[in-house]
């Protein structure tokens, strides 16, 4: 089958290749890929940023989001059958949606929201799971709390806004001038045009800040939180809890060192810092599908690329052109 594989870590490490069809384990669902979205995580994994924690054996197929049709199931699979339309974020070390077929553990799969096309469904799994797990499982957001979401017009930020509003939070977000109205339609209560104002000089007393930019943006986010508030970053630096999450306890001291500066700054501000890395979860995707089907949530797409232009789609995202999710279609 055709696929896009990482042969070596780095910007030029991804290439098209002919590879064997995936084998189907006893608990696996074989999916014919109809859509696969591009995520910043794809670039990070391609570049080897997590190679000490996620030990992929090269060459491996890239791609963390998928929608498609079930074409075979393992002997122990009971929840799915051939012909089902599904979507998933395959678990780490079993990714590979930039391909014609992918075998996925059934626990990571859910039936596709009926109201979404394959293109739309492919844009959903990673960002929806990340938003849900960050806000519900980690931050325990309650109605009336104040949540700051950075880059609200992007694929991740646009989903976080919607989930936060569903949870009853007051939501502030940052966006450029031409995206202000877009993020308001998603539910943002307060929008900071970052080309005109510094959010850290405007906002105060927030319970949660969700950072997807890192660097000084993360440091400033600490200052807008109320005492005891939580800053969550999806771009790092990784903290000791992350090493434990991915089953690498020996790297806890390394993660502690990497995140020492930001954790020290957070402590000085009287707030908390957490690095967040989402987990595959088919049961949560099942719950989220209902929210998409009843109109509570909606995907935000920028554009699609044909499968053979996967490299161009990756470049488009890396150049910062995307205003929503980018999906590769078959």
Characterization of this structure:
The protein has eleven helices and 16 strands. With 330 residues, it is of the alpha/beta class. The strands form three sheets. Strands 3, 5, 6, 7, 8, 15 and 16 form a seven-stranded mixed beta sheet that branches. A six-stranded parallel beta sheet has the order 11-10-9-12-13-14, with helices on both faces. A three-stranded antiparallel beta sheet has the order 2-1-4, with no helix packed on it. It starts with a strand and ends with a strand.
How would you sum up the global shape? globular
Ranges where pLDDT stays below 50 over 5 or more residues in a row are none
Question: Helical content, roughly?
Answer: 25-40%
Helix-strand string: EEEHEEEEEHHEHEHEEHEHHHEHEHE
- Describe the biggest sheet? 7 strands, mixed
Helix-and-strand structural type: alpha/beta
- Content of β-strand: 25-35%
- Radius of gyration, in angstroms, nearest whole number: 19 Å
For the record, give the distance between the C-alpha atoms at the N and C termini, rounded to a whole number: 13 Å
Discrete helix count: 11
Q: Could you give the count of β-strands?
A: 16
On the 0-100 scale, what is the average pLDDT? 95
């Amino acid at each position: 089958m055709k696929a896009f594989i990482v042969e070596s870590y780095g910007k030029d490490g991804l290439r098209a290749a002919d590879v064997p069809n995936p084998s189907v384990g006893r608990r696996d669902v074989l999916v014919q890929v109809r859509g696969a979205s591009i995520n910043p995580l794809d670039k990070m994994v391609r570049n080897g940023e997590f190679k000490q924690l996620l030990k992929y054996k090269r060459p491996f197929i890239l791609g963390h989001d998928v929608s498609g049709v079930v074409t075979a199931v393992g002997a122990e699979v009971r929840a799915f059958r051939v012909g089902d339309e599904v979507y998933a974020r395959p678990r780490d070390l079993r990714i590979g949606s930039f391909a014609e077929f992918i075998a996925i553990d059934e626990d990571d799969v859910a039936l596709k929201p009926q109201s979404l096309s394959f293109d739309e469904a492919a844009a959903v799994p990673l960002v929806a799971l990340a938003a849900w797990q960050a806000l519900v499982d980690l931050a325990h957001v309650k109605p009336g709390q104040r949540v700051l979401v950075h880059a609200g017009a992007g694929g991740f930020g646009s989903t976080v806004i919607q989930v936060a509003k569903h949870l009853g939070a007051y939501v502030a977000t940052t966006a450029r001038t031409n995206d202000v109205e877009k993020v308001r339609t998603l539910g943002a209560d307060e929008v900071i045009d970052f080309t005109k104002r510094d959010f850290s000089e405007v906002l105060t007393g927030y319970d949660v800040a969700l950072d997807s930019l890192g660097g000084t943006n993360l440091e400033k986010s600490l200052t807008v939180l109320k005492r005891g508030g939580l800053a969550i970053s999806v771009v790092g630096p990784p903290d000791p809890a992350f090493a434990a999450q991915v089953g690498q306890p020996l790297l806890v001291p390394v993660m502690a060192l990497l995140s020492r500066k930001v954790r020290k700054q957070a402590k000085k501000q009287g707030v908390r810092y957490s690095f967040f890395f989402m987990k595959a979860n088919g049961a949560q995707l099942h719950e989220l599908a209902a929210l998409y089907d009843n109109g509570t949530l909606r995907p935000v797409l920028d554009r699609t690329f044909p499968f053979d232009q996967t490299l161009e789609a990756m470049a488009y995202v890396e150049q910062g052109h995307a205003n929503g999710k980018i999906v590769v279609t078959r």
